[in-house]
Amino acid sequence: GQNIDQPTEMTATEGAIVQINCTYQTSGFNGLFWYQQHAGEAPTFLSYNVLDGLEEKGRFSSFLSRSKGYSYLLLKELQMKDSASYLCAVRSGGFKTIFGAGTRLFVKA
Amino acid sequence: EPEVTQTPSHQVTQMGQEVILRCVPISNHLYFYWYRQILGQKVEFLVSFYNNEISEKSEIFDDQFSVERPDGSNFTLKIRSTKLEDSAMYFCASSRQDSPLHFGNGTRLTVT
């Protein structure tokens, strides 16, 4: 089966850096994704890792270690608009992407 | 930028009625998906569709559910006889091979 774990909630201060961790267990790993979801809206794609290492994209970076079943999303220079849920998702095989329960991030002034 | 479009944005139906949720995937995408999200809960996989057939489905996707690609652009999810617990946001998504899922804005289904 598949299992994805991430913290339920995190709080950080505007301008700071926050790291959201994700651990997963899956068969047939074929990529890990991070999505952002504001309340009442659709998930929007942030980053994709299929090989080990760090992927950087502006204020967002994502890291993957396949041997450890571990990823993190790093958000720098936090802004109030970054308050949202961050979803870790794992693709197994070609056709199924499973989502974790998400981490609700609260950014305070 | 091309996007996935879903209609309607909100559907209210009575228990036992059939509903059809509609989606137009991004035109050069070949993989299509339906997910649902019950209020306050996680995004749950329902079904994936490729080459005009279901490629994978979850335990949630029982005989009450069906999907269809009736023409070259639409992708539909039908719920035959809705139950109260089917109330949720239903998201359609599409992708190319090994690319991220692109989600539509969702249809909020309310079963009364």
- The total beta strand count of chain A reads 11
Q: Which sequence of SSEs, written as H and E, runs from N to C of chain A?
A: EEEEEEEEEEE
Number of strands of chain B: 11
**Helix-strand makeup class of chain B:** mainly beta
Which value, in Å, is the CA radius of gyration of chain B? 13 Å
Global shape of chain A: globular
* Low-confidence residue ranges of chain A: none
The geometry of chain B reads as globular
Number of separate helices of chain A? 0
> Structural class of the secondary structure composition of chain A?
mainly beta
Helix residue percentage of chain A: under 10%
Mean pLDDT of chain A: 95
Radius of gyration of chain A: 13 Å
Largest sheet of chain B: 7 strands, mixed
Let me know the largest β-sheet of chain A: 6 strands, mixed
Tell me the helix content of chain B.
Answer: under 10%
How much of the sequence lies in strands of chain B comes to over 45%
> How much strand content do the residues of chain A show?
over 45%
Describe the overall structure:
The complex is a heterodimer of chains A (about 110) and B (about 110). Chain A is mainly beta. Helix content of chain A is about 0%, strand content about 60%. In chain A, strands 2, 4, 5, 9, 10 and 11 form a 6-stranded mixed sheet that branches. Chain A has a 5-stranded antiparallel sheet with strand order 1-3-8-7-6, with no helix packed on it. The N and C termini of chain A lie far apart (about 40 Å). Chain B has about 110 residues and is an all-beta fold. Helix content of chain B is about 0%, strand content about 50%. In chain B, strands 2, 4, 5, 6, 9, 10 and 11 form a 7-stranded mixed sheet that branches. In chain B, strands 1-3-8-7 form a 4-stranded antiparallel sheet, with no helix packed on it. At the A-B interface, strand 4, strand 5 and strand 10 of A face strand 4, strand 5 and strand 10 of B.
